[in-house]
Design brief:
globular, 12-stranded antiparallel β-sheet, 31% helix, outer membrane lipoprotein receptor (LolB), chain A, alpha+beta
Length: 251
């Protein structure tokens, strides 16, 4: 009976090891590059179809050589290129920023409780390079914001490095990729040396990105949580945005 028990245990262990190996194989595709390209094709197709989205945007950026504090931002994006962001906590809590490409001289529309001691206008216009706006986000440009910009830039970098046979892709799981652009340099195509990206398995849109510089040091982490597509300007959005800023936003 003891020998039978040992045999049963060995068989059970073997079955578990086999099932775990098979499970791991289903999570990590045999062709990581092909899987990445498939996600990018589907993600671009999905993005072309949507009109708008909202999310809780998590942003952590390098400042003075180290990653700074996490910023939690309510984000609403509308095509062709219109964005609203509201900081939910921290030093910038209550700050609201709206921007529409090609409008208002490409200035940012700002509302912040107590701004100018409450004596000035409710909404002010500031240049994108204003030191006050850039504080804590020295490397972040408003035009870099949004899923679409990343998707476009990342797709171009993958295509270029693939043509140059310098693309390295690791795929620890079905929708998570660790991509390195070997022998690349910071230019119009390559915005990072290495990118870790997580795709949503339903929409195939990228929802978390980690960027690394050419010394393989972290530059920034960006994540879109609670992502909702094609919500329109519903009541939830109108409750988040200041009513005076909403008038300008819709003008």
């Amino acid at each position: 009976m003891k020998n039978q028990g040992r045999v049963f245990i060995l068989i059970l262990i073997g079955a578990l090891l086999f099932s775990n190996a098979a499970f791991a194989e289903t999570l990590a595709p045999k062709d990581p590059k092909g899987s990445l390209i498939s996600f990018l094709k589907k993600g671009n197709h999905s993005y072309r179809k949507l009109k708008d989205y909202k999310a809780l945007f998590i942003k952590i950026e390098r400042e003075e050589g180290v990653l700074g504090a996490e910023e939690r931002i309510y984000l609403k994006f509308e095509k062709p290129w219109k964005i609203f962001m509201k900081w939910m906590e921290g030093e910038k809590k209550g700050l609201e920023v709206a921007y529409e490409r090609g409008k208002h001289k490409n200035n940012l529309m700002i509302h912040k409780p107590g701004l100018l001691l409450g004596l000035g206008p409710s909404v002010v216009y500031l240049d994108q390079n204003s030191p006050w706006v850039r504080k804590g986000s020295a490397s972040y440009d408003i035009e870099d914001a949004g899923i679409g910009t990343f998707l476009e830039d990342f797709t171009a970098a993958v295509a270029q490095s693939s043509r140059e046979k310098k693309l390295k892709v690791e795929c620890p799981s079905e929708s998570f990729f660790d991509v390195t652009f070997l022998d690349s340099k910071d230019d119009d195509i390559y915005f990072a040396y290495r990118v870790k990206v997580l795709f949503d398995t339903h929409s195939h849109l990228p929802v978390k990105m980690e960027l690394f510089d050419w010394q393989n040091q972290p530059m920034g982490i960006y994540e879109y949580r609670e992502l909702e597509l094609n919500t329109g300007q519903n009541e939830a959005f109108k409750k988040e945005i200041n009513r005076n800023l909403l008038k300008v936003y819709n003008s």
